[in-house]
Amino acid sequence: MKENWKKQLKEHLPDRVVYLYLLARQLPGFAAACIRDWNQEAPKLRFYDDQETVDMLISEKKSLSRFGDGEIRWMFGVDLPSFQSYSPKLAEELTRVFQSRDPNLLIGIPRGVVDSRNCNLYAKMHWRTIRGEFYSRILLLTDRERIYCNASITRPYMDYHDRQASARRFENLRRLWQGRDIVIVEGEKSKLGVGNDLFSNAASLRRILCPATNAYEKIDAIETAIRTHADKDVLLLAALGPTATVLAARMCTAGYQMVDIGHIDVEYIWFLRGDLLRKPIAGKYVLESGVTDDAGKSEEDPQYLASILCRVV
């Protein structure tokens, strides 16, 4: 079986060489986006900063649905080679969530699409490309009176060049589950918090395991499992791609607090290791690294096994 090209690159070339190669791969899309945007003034959206977002999540028990570049593409009909297949139903529900008027639901859009000044060069190019492709369509769905959150709040490290600022971003997020009972709703190969201390300040941690791929096809069963196994006073953290985006809205309507926490676990591990690239993490499904083949290995950690409330697979 032919190896994934990302795996080959990251195994055989120095990190900085791979980084330069990845920059070069972005140039055509970046150049096209710059040309498309040339002399075009587009209205800017308003954003809460990350501290304000966490403050609201803590004090007002709001929920958060995030629309990263993947969710934006799915919403506009792009079928990505990813862990979730596109469907018109998924696109329709994502659009409905994006335009939700629920006062208890915060909506996240990548701030880098509007302002990427604090990002590293790779991220600047990436978000400029996304802006050129989708920003005009995003604006058609936005409420100009609304203040949005930064969808990249759960990516505090890899897009930035200031390591100390990343440390502060992680600490800001950790305030969210300080002393809380949390239930993590995640893909069965994600294993958030396993092998690190990201959630060590939570009062308790339990988890509901869901399909690692195409979880949206089981979203109704996942919602039923949450209602069955989780009380409304716990903090729900979801890491299920676009399914988490939709689930956060559904559970918010049902009276729960759910935060779409995304890639926070892998970002934290990359941060601790000082990785320049999105590298594999042993025992975890990390699509962006190009290596997911060892993520299904059996987990023998008794603490991890004891944390599993149920499986919806």
Could you please describe the fold and organization of this structure?
With 313 residues, the protein is α/β, with parallel strands linked by helices. It has one domain (5-311). It has helices spanning 5-12, 15-37, 50-59, 69-75, 88-98, 121-141, 163-174, 219-229, 242-253, 264-273, 302-306, and strands at 46-47, 63-66, 105-109, 147-150, 181-187, 204-210, 235-239, 257-260, 308-311. The strands form two sheets. A five-stranded parallel β-sheet has the order 8-7-5-6-9. The chain has a four-stranded parallel β-sheet with strand order 1-4-3-2. Helix 6 links the parallel strand 3 (105-109) and strand 4 (147-150). It starts with a helix and ends with a strand. The mean pLDDT is 90.
Please give a quick description of this structure.
With 313 residues, this protein is of the alpha/beta class. Helix content is 42%, strand content 13%. A five-stranded parallel beta sheet has the order 8-7-5-6-9. Strands 1-4-3-2 form a four-stranded parallel beta sheet.
